[in-house]
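Dear Dr. H.,

I hope your travels went smoothly. While you were away I took the liberty of generating a structure for the chain from your last submission, since the lab meeting agenda had it listed for discussion. I wanted you to have the full record in hand beforehand rather than looking at slides cold. The sequence, exactly as received, is reproduced here:
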Amino acid sequence: MSTFRLKIITQEEVLLEQEVESLYVTTIDGDITVLPHHTPYVSILKPAEVIIKVGGKEESFACTGGILEVTPEKVVILADSAVRTEKIDEEAALKAKERAESVMAEKLESRENAEAMLALEKALLHLRVAQKRKHRSSLPTNPNQE
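The corresponding predicted structure, in token form, is as follows:
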């Protein structure tokens, strides 16, 4: 199986650097799947789930946005923030959502309101991706299972 080098970088760390079979992301141009030998491409990422395939298995990340660069040598995601789906703390995300909504309800300065909107968007993304993961893991792997 053909692969390509993927690197996901956040402000805090290099989250991932490995050979992958495919990458699914949501850009401002729409949803795309990057496969080996993809045409060079640069785009802005929208907040969404990023899905990679490694060894025939899918792994996913919640990414709040960033930049995608596809070159012949590698693919790089410079993420605003990203977390592996299995590391999402749903309870913390729910609390962050509630805090952000509370701040927004206070109608504070535009900067504080903008920060609260970003926190709300991040919390909602984490909740959405975590729920999607739960749903996927509850599906039978054998279609003949009941």
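Two observations you may find useful: The beta strands are 4-9, 14-20, 22-27, 30-34, 41-45, 48-54, 57-63, 66-70, 75-79, 82-84. The longest strand covers residues 14-20.

With kind regards,
E. W.
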